Amino acid sequence: MSTTDEETPFDAYREHVDRPLSRLFREYGPGRLHWFSIAMVANFIAQMSSLVPPLILGAAIDAIFTEGGEGYSLPVVPDAWLPATEMAQFWFSVSAIAGAFILVGVFTWIYGVSGNLFAHDVMHTVRVDCFRKMQELDMTFFDDKQTGEVMAVLNNDTQNLEMFLDNALINSVRLLVMVGGITAILFFLNWQLAFVTLVAIPVMFAFTYWFMVTVEPRYVRQRAAVGWLNTRLENSLSGMGLTKTTSSEEYEVGRVRKASKRLFDDTMAVLKLSYVYRPGMELLAGIAFAATFLVGGWWIATGTAPGPMTGTLQVGEFVTFLFLTQFIVSPLAEVSNIVDQYENAKASSERVFGLMDIPIYVSDPDEPDELEPVTGRVEYDEVSFSYAEGERRAVGDEADGEEEVVVEDLSFVAEPGDTVALVGPTGAGKSTVLKLLLRLYDVSDGEIRVDGHDVRDVRLDELRDAIGYVSQETFLFDGTIADNIRYGHFEASNEAVREAAKAAQAHEFIEELEDEYETRVGERGVKLSGGQRQRVALARTVLQDPEVLILDEATSAVDTKTELLIQRSIDRLTEDRTTLAIAHRLSTVKDADTILVLEGGRIVERGSHEELLERGGRYATLWGVQAGDVDEALDALADGGGERSS
């Protein structure tokens, strides 16, 4: 199985989802079927009650209002239960018609409430389950994330399921009851005229089958187009700052126009077919009504049965036929909407379960080791990693050709309380090395151990609780500063939050804000500067109080003055903690116990700051560049930058 450029992992799995709507009922029906059953029974009673007034009217016309008509009789009701005099029959008819309408109103309300309870509860649970599944998915899924696609599943697709469960199923029952009930009544009244009225039904079903087979792939493409447009919009809005600073507004408009045109074309492909189907159904239903009026009217007007028909047709029976034929037109015309909602829900449920079926590889072991208490010894033992392998697993692909190895045969040890720094050019694999410790990815080969435990053998929450992570890409949720510091430790007191902010050199600038710790930071923290966001993130880690600390270029977004302040707090934070740090500015890690120089995912140098400078290799070259000896550094780079070692 493989994916195209516009496919996401759950699209690949969607292709193998079997009977998605049946699965929806199997997995989400239990515990809610009482509401569904109440809705179906109430709907049945309401629809059957709606057939009573035409029957009563026909019987009353023949028995009360037509001279020489037949006696007052109703299907399945014994004549002994019916009144004998005309006035009694009249008042019985009035009461029965009024009672039928009351029943229709009461049971329509019952099935509306219970049906919506069932449908919306399923929609709510599906949406939450989809979101929970996304929280559990491996990072390889999000590395190539299509946020708009994900939003389409969580919103549009669950909404389609709700419409199907609420409307389409109810209308399907209504259709079956009306067609079945009306067919039985018409055959009871006059089986010969009933054949004329119902002759179009088989043609309608054949026409419906053709429509369903033809429209299904068009619905699939339309759902994919919705997700693609959502992705395009989300990406464009997220990158608004870049768009404006590069004057690329028209370029973004063009990209959205292209995605919108794709949705337009795919939607029109569905609608064009619907515009053939819906009028076609109404035409067939209209032909049935016209044929009934023609044959029945001729029969009444001439008093002679037309063609091969025999017997008589009463005026009341004819009126009942006309009323019930009109009744059957409406539900038959609704078949198009039912099919629309069914196909839409089928495509949406395939996407929902396509997401649900993506396997999770980074998960808790069946029998985890006990990690606590953590002392902080971290060991990388011949670790190798390739993103390609994780991506293939995310979509179920087999290995295909050579893969790019991001980390290769990497080994080092950080003793409790040690600081190990990773330096090297962009793309050397530094961030990936540290993400492997957190099990954001799993190693392809080798082992990473914390206190002697392979990180794959311990619970994820225990592992990650013991490791604090400050990324170069600081993320803040739209909320208050206090909420963001407290994130992950939601029960922390206000005093603990303030102490953490002080330790991260954030308290001073927070106190200067109008609402202090209750200041809202905006989406992604846009109301704060890069340095302020970084200090809030650092305060979050201080509050966590981890045994192992990861600093992924934690001071990259700040000026020199702020860097000095943050570095001072980092120095206090790293005391007695095992620290793994990625440094953009080498001056921030020159006091590390061990410095590892990475290139191409391999360690090419290791040692202390003084040892590496004396060696005159890659590290010395990088230090020379940052120290200002640019000419000498460039010459060293041109000569190869020293011998490779490990």
Number of helices: 23
Ends: how far apart?
40 Å
Portion of residues in helices? Answer: 55-70%
Structural class: alpha/beta
**Sheet with the most strands, sense and barrel status:** 6 strands, mixed
Q: Could you name the CATH class of the largest domain? A: Mainly Alpha
Counted up, domains total 2
Radius of gyration of CA atoms, rounded to a whole number = 36 Å
Count of β-strands: 10
The overall pLDDT average reads: 80
Report the CATH topology name of the largest domain. Answer: ABC transporter transmembrane region fold
Beta-strand share of residues: 5-15%
Major beta sheet, strand line-up: 6-7-8-3-9-10
CATH superfamily membership of the largest domain: ABC transporter type 1, transmembrane domain
Stretches with pLDDT under 50, minimum 5 residues: 1-5, 641-646
